[in-house]
Each structure stands twice: as structure tokens, then as C-alpha cells.
């Protein structure tokens, strides 16, 4: 697995969408202006949900800088991922 | 539901990923240079899979022009969607 960037949040099954929304807000408050959400496989849908719920809460305070999709090979299997770059606006 | 564009493919549960990959290739052959994949709700993952399998087949022949995510209200519920714009390269 690739090394996780400090401002990257990997979306998985362990936490609820609301928890990830809170994680992003906490990171914004810690001074990160950009946060990257990464969802792999079945968590792709969840990553998009996190973005939408965050958008509901922060409105114009957050913008979608870039949404990127692709695939990576893990344990000899190709897995799809989505990477969502969010930017905090003041 | 919004009016479907002629070059838009709405990903749903009815067909397999392979069928959608074929649909895109057929549309490219019909002369469309740009094809838009739209996946709503749980089909978001499937839409990304279609893109990746297409990329496997066409390689540099197809490029990801834009991936957009957002939400829309349907039957008073907010549903997440992904819109993937693909471009044919000759």
C-alpha cells in the first residue's frame, strides 16, 4: 500500500460517513487547507457521500478542487479508487 | 429525472460492467468523441469500474476529461452521483 499523505483520509468500512465528515472538519481546523479523501473499491460511494454531507454542512466553505478516478494493483488484483481533493475557503 | 443527453450513459443495475464498456466503444464508433458516464447511488462504484475496464482495453485511446461528483434531489431524498467525461483520442 502506498504511503499515506498527512492530509489524506482513507475511507473504509470501519467508520460511518458522519465520522469522516467530522474528521475533515477537524483537519480543516488544524490548519490543513486541502484534504484528500480516498475511497477504494466499495468505499467509492461512501467517499462521495462524505463529500456531499460535508458540502451540506459547510456550503461555500468547501470546494471540490479535483475528483480523480483510476485503478491500482493490490495483491495482484486491480481495484478502482476515487480521490477527492477538497479545499477550504475562508 | 433530468433529460438524458445523447452521449450520456446512465449506469444502473440492469447491465454488467462489460456491457457498459461495450456501449461506450459502440458510441465512440458511431462518431461521438465524448461520452459521459453517470452513476447514481450504489452505481457510483460501477461507473468507476466501467472507466477502468475501458482504460484497460483502449489504453491511450481514451482519456478521462473530467470526473465530477455531487448530489441531486430525487423523491425528496438526496442522492450522490458521479459523472465521468471520457474523450476518444485518435
Write the layout of secondary structure elements.
The structure is a homodimer of 90-residue chains.
Chain A: E1 8-11, H1 17-29, E2 34-40, H2 44-58, E3 62-74, E4 77-88
Please give a handful of descriptors for the protein shown:
4 strands, homodimer, Translation Initiation Factor IF3, alpha+beta, 4-stranded mixed beta sheet, 2 helices, 40% strand
Question: Gist?
Answer:
2 copies of one chain form a homodimer. With 90 residues, chain A is α+β, with helices and mostly antiparallel strands. The first copy, chain A, has helices spanning 17-29, 44-58; strands spanning 8-11, 34-40, 62-74, 77-88.
Q: How does this model look, in words?
A:
The structure is a homodimer of 90-residue chains. By secondary structure, the first copy, chain A, is an alpha+beta fold. Chain A has a single domain, classed as Translation Initiation Factor IF3 (2-Layer Sandwich). Chain A has 2 helices and 4 strands, in the order βαβαββ. In chain A, α1 links the parallel β1 and β2. The radius of gyration of chain A is 13 Å and the shape is globular. The mean pLDDT of chain A is 92. Chains A and B meet through α2, β3 and β4 of A and α2, β3 and β4 of B.
